[in-house]
Amino acid sequence: xxxxxxxxxxxxxxxxxxxxxxxxxxxxxxxxxxxxxxxxxxxxxxxxxxxxxxxxxxxxxxxxxxxxxxxxxxxxxxxxxxxxxxxxxxxxxxxxxxxxxxxxxxxxxxxxxxxxxxxxxxxxxxxxxxxxxxxxxxxxxxxxxxxxxxxxxxxxxxxxxxxxxxxxxxxxxxxxxxxxxxxxxxxxxxxxxxxxxxxxxxxxxxxxxxxxxxxxxxxxxxxxxxxxxxxxxxxxxxxxxxxxxxxxxxxxxxxxxxxxxxxxx
Length: 265
Known about the structure:
Belongs to the ABC transporter superfamily. By secondary structure, this protein is an alpha/beta fold. Helix content is about 35%, strand content about 25%. The strands form three sheets. It has a six-stranded mixed sheet with strand order 6-7-8-3-9-10, sandwiched between helices. Helix 3 runs parallel beside helix 6 (about 140-155), helix 5 (about 115-125) packs antiparallel against helix 6 (about 140-155) and helix 6 (about 140-155) runs parallel beside helix 7 (about 170-190). The two termini are about 35 Å apart.
């Protein structure tokens, strides 16, 4: 397994934000983490990436304990993109993507031909070659998000962790980012785990879905099984039905406008 964890628990003070979380990701898999606000999605990603040290449990990257690896070694294998990454507006797309080579280049080594090819591949994979000289300020929301994903790809990491990659984007840009996620997994074999709010987007792009509530993993399985579980209505406190356009299509959750008391989406 490229990325897995067992019995992972994270505390914020006395509060248990993540409770005995388990997950196994296959190569090239897209996994969605869903759940209400405060359910532990971001905490799980940060614990998997090493940004938070769990009090209990272990994380393994390609079968090896992450706690025995240096940050630089982890960065060569896994890239994490937070909800709202920041960089100077005057920085160009190419300059940002070059930052992704830092785990390989370090402070003193100059860029070699392999580094340049990795940067070229990252730009090409995200459709940004023609925008390489543009500043981040000149980009649309979707283009800027693609630039950050491109920087993560330049690390040549085969594991990509995304925290709400479609948040704050118009629907067209959301689709753009989700199409990129799907293409990276299928064409490049990148393993992707992402926290995402939109249930239907999660169902449309993911191979498996993990549902969290109050730090507890309630469901881990395929989208069709989630649709049949009844957990979406229960956990998010909404009324609705899963429908299919065709018998072969993935289910789509249709929310009723009359919401239950205390609804959270």
